[in-house]
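Final report, closing paragraph on structural work. Over the funding period we assembled a curated collection of sequence-structure pairs, and we close with a single example.
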Amino acid sequence: MSIQEKISTADLMESLREELTCFICLDYFNSPVTTECGHSFCLMCLLKSWEEHNTPLSCPECWRTLGAPHFQANERLGRLASIGRQLRSQVLQTEDEQSSCGRTPGASRVFSDDEQSVVNFSTQSHGMNRAYFSSEAEEQHKEKLQDIINLLRKKKKEAQAILNHEKERVTLCKEETKTCKQVVVSEYMKMHQFLKEEEQLQLQLLDKEEKQNMKKLRDNEIHLAQQVSRLNKMIGRMESTCQNLSLESFEEARGAMDRCESLLLQCPETTVTELSLCRVTGMREMLRKFSTDVTLDPATANAYLVLSDDLKSVKYGGTRQQLPDNPERFDQSATVLGSQVFTCGRHYWEVEVGKKTEWEVGICKDSVIRKGNLPKPPGDLFSLIGLKIGDDYSLWVSSPLKGQHVREPVHKVGVFLDYESGHIAFYNVTDESLIYSFPSTSFHEALRPIFSPCLPNEGTNTDPLIICHI
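Its predicted structure, as stored:
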């Protein structure tokens, strides 16, 4: 066997010894056990290590903290260690015999002096090797422990600095929150004051307009009373003249007729009264918080209605489409429902009516009658109807049907529903004013949006109703 082969054998033997050596005693394993982190030690070495270090249990090799003193006996590793020890002893014995016979000069130097001393001691008992290497292993462990302690101290310093900073931030966070709350309260107090002033201005304006309207009404009342009195007197005179009519009184009768002519030309007129629009500052911004994405339900649309692809607009098409006459579909009125069904909550949406001369938007019960064109029972429909005849523009609400004259057409309508409070209201989006608010009621079934572009009026009123994106 050549020197290179012997050296190779020695390297292999050393590698095998390292794999079968306990990290603590640096000797072959004796009754080895394996911890939950995967490292193996002699049973007695591991127990002694845990006994000597009164700290949380950890692996002596990787220092991973162990949840409990759990380990598993590794009998196969113990058998391999025993085989390794015997094999090493036989190799050494063979080398000694060859050296004594003089066959391979220098072969006894396969191992270095240090390695040879380790080999010599490895052939001794397990307890003696542990005593020999304990000081070296202890020194290594102390150095490693000191490095870890230094690292832990550094980490502790960093953690303490962050902890102090976090404590400061806790105080700062409380102060910032307190300041923000004060700002919020202050700003809302200003807003409340501003709204209160706006409310007072609106009420004062209405009081002023009421006084002006009352004066107009009373002045006209006096004027009409005087006109009635003059007419009564003239009627009396004319009746008396008619009864006593003679040739001599003809000229008198003629004079009476001339005098009543001016009275006949006087036409009694009603007083025109006006009230300011009910504008509420910030109302639309608040309503927009409850914006609901409303779309049209094709299954409910009258066969003459044409819906857009995005189900956001509807117009009268003029031609009946071939659609199934399902129970949900309106068959007589030009009406379509929204897809959304409301059984709770607050909801708001806006509808562009543009320059249409007739339209209807609102809310109805989901059970509203779809067939025929009979008036809806009270409580089934809450709608706003726009109607323009000539230059006269009016709005009607149903039901019951109630109308009001408006000076300017409404181009965009806001619809608001508060299901729990039983509140429905319509708004003029353009000038941000309230059009009509229904008296509060109790809802006991599902509600749905309702839309009607109404029929064309001699070529007019062909524009669609458009549900706006808010």
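Confidence is low (pLDDT under 50) at residues 1-6, 103-133. The first helix runs from residue 3 to 19. We thank the funder for supporting this effort.
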